[in-house]
Write a structure and sequence with these properties.
Elements lengths: L1 H10 L4 H18 L4 H24 L7 H29 L16 H8 L5 E6 L5 H11 L5 E6 L5 H7 L6 E6 L2 E7 L1 E2 L2 E2 L4 H12 L5 E5 L15 H9 L3 E5 L13 E5 L7 H12 L4 E4 L9 H4 L4 E3 L3 E4 L15 E2 L1 E2 L13 E2 L6 E3 L5 E8 L4 E4 L14 E2 L3 E8 L7 H8 L36 H9 L3 H16 L8 E6 L15 H14 L21 H30 L1
Parallel strand pairs: 1-2, 7-8, 7-9, 9-10, 10-21
Antiparallel strand pairs: 1-3, 3-4, 5-6, 11-16, 12-18, 13-15, 14-17, 17-20, 18-19, 20-21
Helix pairs in contact: 2-3, 2-4, 5-8
Amino acid sequence: MARLTALFRTYGKYAFLPAIAFGLAGGIALGVTGVMSKLYLGLMGIAVIFFLFWWTWLWQRSQGFLGRRSTQSSANVIASTLAVLVILTLINYIAFRYPFAWDLTENQRFTLAPQSQSLVAELEQPLKVWIFDDAPSEQDRKLLQNYQRFSDQFSFEFVHPDRRPKLVQDFNVQNKGDVFIEYANKKQLVQNLLSFQQREALSEIQLTNAIAKAQRQETPQIYFVQGHGELPLNNEPGGVSAAVTALENLGVAVQPLNVVTDGGIPVDADAVVIVGPTRKFLPPEIAALQQYTDQGGNLLVMISPEANVGLEDVLEPWGVSFDPRLVIDLSGAGSVFGLDPTVPIFNRYGNHPITAKLQGAIAIFPLVRPVATEEKPQIQATTLVEASDLMYATQLISEDLQPNPETDLLGPFDVAVALTREGKEASSAKEMETDNNTEPEEINPSPSPPVSPSPSPTANGTNQPEAMPENDGNQAGDREESPTGENEDSGNDQTQTAQQNGDPELPPAKMVVVGSAAFASNAWFNEAVNGDIFLNSVQWLAENVDQPLGLRAKDPTDRRINLGVRRATVLGWLTWVVFPLIGLGLAVFTWWRQR
């Protein structure tokens, strides 16, 4: 006992050193991990014991020791040091438990896009990302950790291909750098990180698209109408190949459609897209489109100014029409991007799933026309994109670009709208075909089109007024020329009678109408949120989505500076020679003046 007392008196003054060491080890480990481990608590307990030993040694050494000025100074230093360590530990603990970061990059490069966040947050089953790479990238790891923050169902693993051959065989890995996702017993290739011996970063766009594709139980079928001068599906500047590729990356099947030569609109069409026609549709094509929408088909119509394509009979029952005038932007916002007033920039959107999350973003619609709507029974119209007070629509552009209130349409007005028709749910497409007793998709240019079936009247179940579509003279003329006019007239009479009786006749359907086709072309698709508006519109039409659709990830803007040989040489001399010599010279001059 006497020996222990002697050791305590000799070395007790150093007990504060292990107290600080054990306290730091336990406090930092506890703050970073957030786990109340016995090991971490034990380390902090040992620190407290050593601190008590040191304090006891100080108390026993001298009664007047605590009153000395040196003791008080040392105690203040120790207390301040411990306070700083405690504060740093708490800051690390809070930062670990509640991470938050500011992303100041132009395209929010280090922040997941809203669509990526919502997809991962809504995962119903575990999803795992497998990266078969012998040299994992820290950048890829951080991206995957960002995904993991939004769902416990998301996980990832880096795999060395040479060390786990069985796993490589199970996934049928062909190359190093292959990235797969596994979801609900599905294994899907996402990306290869090695291209021409160059390593690429894991793409958020491709990973999010793969997650969306894996979650689909069925593949939506989208048809692009062709044959009337529509924008081609190829990769020329005026084509829409960028939009088609984006849809295919989302797991959507895209096919061209010629309504006449293909025998009508296929029964598996989830949505039909009409983008930028320049020639009029034939009467049988108009009838096929009418029949398609009457049977619950969804339609996306995008028509540029000065295009008279004869779709009035399709749009009129929905209470929507195109204004022939061209929209002019007087705000001057386009001048920042070098655009003229015929390329308006929009930032006002309606409260609709297509545009709800686009508030504050800009869309660029070149050569756009207004879209007018009127109230129709059973039809609900919602603004998607709205012109501002500094825009107007005109048929004759003046030299000073000033609007004429007597002939021009002054803003605000709509340039894109979404329409929803409420009605009775159709039991199935097969029942419709059975009721028709005909092939509804077969289109013959000479006879008039078949008429949609007339299901038995049932209660609507909603408070909305019933549909009351109007008949025009052209349709009546077509019926008279039909070889089977009696049957068709009888069907139309039944349809009109049912509608006049107030019973819902037509099933639910959707339509999106945009006064510009160029905004979705290859030249403009990736500008601002143009692509998001188009893709959200197709997704809302084809997949019966009612929740808001978010912004998609975008490739980071390339801001690299390509220097010539002379500029690179000058920059190198400035960095390694001139600036260091200037700093050294100033240091020598300062030293000399002090002497």
